Here is the input.
Amino acid sequence: MTATTISIAIQKGGSGKTTTAVNLGAALRDLGKKVLLVDFDPQANLTQALGLADDLEPNIYHLIKRLAQGEEVTLEQVIQKANDMDLVPSSLELAGAEIELVSIYGREKLLQQLLIPLQDQYDFIFIDCPPALGMLTVNALTASDYVLVPLQAEFLPFKGVQSFMRSLDKVKKQLNPNIEVLGYILTKYDDRKIMNRQVLEQLKRAYEAQVFDTRIRTNIALAQAQEKGVDIFKYAQRSNGAQDYSELGLEFLERTSQ
Here is the structure.
């Protein structure tokens, strides 16, 4: 078993990155896959969405800082069990890493160094990225095989995708030539809305086969599940949200050939 590492990223907040990390991970868990979730966003939304406090110590920030100082550290030191998945928690302290690591040689590859020893322990590693292309997101993209791009079916998020792709090209040229876009996932989708359908068509014209057939419909149960600190399958397994993420999990496996 060699893990496939996927960054969930886009330069736009509210796109469904954390919701997708939690529930796609849970869908794959229920299909018998071993999943590691990495919260690499200082907002720590993924950590909180899985029912854990955002001030756990140690967390990913402490490992990154100690690794940069030359210490020997492992992710096992911070991994928590949450919803039958493994989670690397985050905290607000991670926001300081952008400044603290600016003079560190090889700072773009710190997360990659931490993930390499775990490659034979998981089927999939998902990294929930911040909504900006700073040092943290660059670290995630450098460590990943693929990037998964969730976005709302609106025009501003679509413009954000185009900007993100230009930034991804730079990372691909300078740091990780092997990273590929696995696909684009429309979230909070309502087929009755003309704008949603128009954005879907624009996305298909721009990126063709990379657009996932599965679309995540607007569903209040997804937000409620996060408030309860559980995934959608544990909260409301018959909801539209559970159905959509279950279908996404199957399509995801087809695209990764697993």
